[in-house]
Amino acid sequence: MKGDKAMKKVISIISIVLVLSLSHFVPTYADSAYKTVTVNKDGNYIETQTAYKPVKTIEKIGNELLSAPSDMVIRNNKLYIADTGNKRIIVSSLSGDIITVFGNEKLKKPTGVFVKNNGQIMVADCDNKAVFTFDENGNEISKITKPSEPLYGKKQDFVPVKVSADNKDNIYVVCKGNGNGVVQISEKTSEFLGYFGANNVSMSLWDRFFDAIFTDEQKSQLKQTTPASISNVAIDKKGIVYTMTDIKTDNVIRKLNMSGNDILNTNISFSNPADLCVGSIGNIYAVTTNGYILEYNSEGDLLFAFGGFDDGSQRIGLFSSISSIATDNSGKLYVLDDTSCQIQIFEPTEFTNNVHTALDLYSQGKYLESKKPWEKVLLMNNLFDYAHKGMAEAYYMEGNYEKAMEEFRLSNNQYSFSEAFTEYRNQKIRDNITLVLIAFIAVIGSIFALLKIKKKKKVLAEGTKEITRSNLKNQLLFIFDMPKNPFDANYGIKRENKVSTISATILYLLFVVIYIIDKYCRGYIFSGVTTGQFYVIKDIAVVIGIMALFILCHYLVCSITEGEASLKNIYCAVIYSLMPYIILRPFVIVLTHVLTVNEIFLINILNFLIYVGCAILLVIMINQQNNYKVGETVKCIFWTLFSIIVAIAVLFILYVMAKQTVGFVSEIWNEVTYNVKK
Questions:
Q1: Does 239 share its domain with 388?
Q2: Same domain? 342 vs 380
Q3: Are residues 402 and 280 in the same domain?
Q4: Cα separation of 376 and 36, whole Å?
Q5: Structural contact between residues 576 and 568, judged by C-beta atoms closer than 8 angstroms
């Protein structure tokens, strides 16, 4: 289920941009210059309340203008800005009043800045190929250059672009073009400790083979197999390291444990990443170079996306190009535009404050305490699905499993719904244990009674020898003879007329009905259909089309390969060979309503019996109906499948041609109509 969740929530910034771009044409909440979107339970982007409103723009730091600023950090209610174009570091108040400026004489191209708990300022200077440490007054304390340890790599350059540090005297340096990961250095000894958190790269078996036999020159002509270099790094108050990669991958942002492995539950992927920072409750903020701001919770689920590209209107809330983002203790966002050289300040709305309060309690495991703020969020926006997840956890802790199930369903959390359903089911069994035992005894007694009645009827039938073989009832019940002895059953279909086209047609209709019920009426835990999305007519057409295509293609192949089966025999034998699906699938549907994720193996066993049983019976059907040998049976199956593929390709080409023809005729008709009216 984790994988499903992870697979359903892979976030593409392209879709966000398409939604947000409408903000120039559609009125938005609070008359802002942008729309705020979030992701609903189905993975679609929907508009929500304005999450942050712009409250101020800092155009100058004191009387100083910025030039191509590339990084910014907030510490102790101060702004520290890497003023790259002016080759300096500027320190100011949060309102933009200048405090100090330093680094002009030593820095060449400062692109990263970080402030340690003791107030010391670390600067990554890519042109100096060094990381400097300054005191609060701007005096140089130390300078870290390329590590001399062999493990670093003699040919590997040292071009720092970002820097950060934890509370354990570890410095993390992001170096341009270094795919080995973040450079980890000891602050006390300046010793190179190793690479940390390198991006993964997948290599196929062929890639490994070529890597072993090809020369370096030949390898250079192959596709890139080295990991993408990390572009940014951040560390939260707990010392957890976050990295960003500016090449679009499945994991643009990663949250790394001590081993350097990503521990986010959801892969975060979007285009044009620029910078990231971590809020006081572990929420992750990210910005893109084309002007968008994204907020994720600590588990990697998208909460809000807003902002946009400034096309020259210079409206507050839009950007020419974002280079950095920072947040203060009150939750305000400070966003640095390196093209307009301004800082825009965003303040969280009441809606967002409620979300953050609930998230903070939720992340601490205080689910009951988070219930009230979640309720406030839902009162303001009942479509904010993450609030339903929080409410579900609160109800679960209260022991209100029925309500928890309802909320988990609203948040599309199947795994947690299964856990709540398990508790709800156990609770009902405990409350009704007497009725359960009586029902169990009644079922067992009924089975024994039916077996005895069946035995007596069999004796009477043998005594009277009145067996009717031609009526529709017996033709339908003949389906149970198929698994008992498929060879005799196929002989009965082919030579003894034990079935008819009417009985076969009824079974085909039953098959279609079972398929539709199976797709749309499974229990929620095992349902693979998005709520509210029903395409019954299309599904019926697809099932009937596939069956008709298989029957016709198989008949044509049999005719060419001198098979003995007639079209009627194939029509009847195919559906009778699908007996395991027709008989066992309804039991699977029922089980999806009473079983949980932990008991899925029972459904898997039945599915295995269904699909393997159908495959075996179909193979025997092809063999017996056509009187083939084993080799001829295999060839017939191959050519049948091949002809189906060819038929689908031809039908697709005809569909495209017909669509183009209709479009062409429609255009001509519109043109003629327009000219006539004109």
A1: no
A2: no
A3: no
A4: 19
A5: no
Residue 336 lies in a domain: yes
Q: What letter represents residue 192's amino acid?
A: F
- Looking at the structure, do residues 135 and 244 belong to the same domain, yes or no? yes
Domain extent at residue 83: 2-197+229-348
Give the CA distances from residue 77 to residues 95, 147, 327, in Å, rounded to whole numbers and listed in that order. Answer: 10, 34, 10
Q: What is the 3-state secondary structure (H, E, C) of 535-589?
A: CHHHHHHHHHHHHHHHHHHHHHHHHHCCCCCCHHHHHHHHHHHCHHHHHHHHHHH
Here the CATH number for the domain that contains residue 82 is 2.120.10.30
pLDDT in tens, 368-427: 899 999 999 999 998 888 899 889 999 998 889 999 999 999 888 888 999 999 999 988
Q: Which residue(s) pair with 39 in the sheet?
A: 45
pTM: 0.76
pLDDT in tens, 329-357: 999 999 999 999 999 999 999 999 999 99
Domain boundary among 348, 382, 408: 348
Cα angle: 63, vertex 66, 67; to 5 degrees: 145
Is the domain of 399 the same as that of 488? no
* Residue carrying structure tokens 């390898």: 219
Q: Are 589 and 570 in contact (CB under 8 A)?
A: no
Q: Return the pLDDT at 386.
A: 86
Among 182, 175, 212, 216, residue whose Cα is nearest residue 199: 182
Give residues with Cβ within 8 angstroms of 630, minimum separation 6.
Answer: 623
Which stretch of DSSP H or E encloses residue 458? helix 433-464
